[in-house]
Amino acid sequence: MDEPQGPPLIFDPKRRALARDRAFDGFADHDFLYRHMLDGLLERLDDVQRPLRQVLLIGCPDESAARALRALGKEVTCCDPGARNAAANRGVQAEEDALPFAGESFDLILACGTLDSVNDLPGALILMRRLLRPDGLLLGACVGAGSLARLKSALLAAEGDRPTPHIHPQIDVRSAGDLLARAGYAMPVADVEALTVRYSTALALMRDLRGMGYGNVMTAPRRGALTREVIARACAAFAEAADPDGKTAEHFSLLYFSGWKPDPSQPKAARRGSATVSLAQALKSKI
C-alpha cells in the first residue's frame, strides 16, 4: 500500500531559514514592509478589549514586535524560521507547521510576515488553533496575491522562452478566509490592504526583498543565478513602466486575517433566514 502523500514541498526550509539569517544584520535598512504589517496588526489588536496575556509571536526579524507587545503587558514567546532572528529574541527556531509548543498554551498568536511561505499552511493553521486556549485569537499578516506584478513581468520579459520561477505563489484574500474556516476557526476574517512603493530601479526593489529575507526560497530547480544580461533586461523592462520622474510604482497586497478558537461563550452567526445575531454583530462583540 502506498504511503499517504504529504503537502507539496514548494518551499525549501533550509533555504528559507538561510535567507532570513542573511537578512538579519541589515534588516533595519529594508524593514518598511514588516513595519507596515506590524503596525496594522497592532492597530487591529488595539480594538480587542480582552487581555490575551500569553502571546506566541511568529516572525521576529528584530525586537520591535516583542517590545511593542510587552509594552502592552503581554508575556511573549518568540518563534522564527531563521536561527539568528530566534536567538536575538531569545526564542525558538521552528517552521510554522511544526511548532514545538504544548496545546492550549497561548491566548494570542500573532504571525507577522511569514505564513505566505509555509509548505503546509492548512496544517500550520490547525496546529496554531490547537496551541490557542479556548476563545484565543490568531492574528496574522503576510504579502498576498497580486504583489510584485511589475517585477514579475520584468523578469518574465527578461528571461524570454525559458523563465525560471523567482517569486513564489501567493495567497488571495478569499483563500485565506476559506483556509481559516476549514482549519476550525470561529468568526474568520480576512482583508487586504494595497501598498504602493516607487523605485528608481528594479535592482533597488530586489535589494529590498533580499534585505527583508524574501529571496527565492522555493524548491523548484534553478537554472542558474540571474546573469548580468538578464538583470539588465529586467531593469530595462521595469523602467519602461516608470512615471515621468523616472520611478516605477510597485504594488504590494498586504493580507490581514484573524480567527478565534471556538468556545461555547462565543456568539453564533445567525441561521439563514433568522435576524437574531448577525456575523457582523458577532465580530463586533469580540472588540
TrEMBL record:
GO MF annotations in UniProt: methyltransferase activity
Regions crossing the membrane: none
InterPro entries: Malonyl-ACP_OMT, Methyltransf_11, SAM-dependent_MTases_sf
Any single biological process term in GO: methylation
Keywords: Methyltransferase, Transferase
Cross-referenced Pfam families: Methyltransf_11 (PF08241)
Positions of the Methyltransferase type domain: 57-139
CDD domains, per database record: AdoMet_MTases
Name of the protein in question: SAM-dependent methyltransferase
Taxonomic classification: Bacteria, Pseudomonadati, Pseudomonadota, Alphaproteobacteria, Sphingomonadales
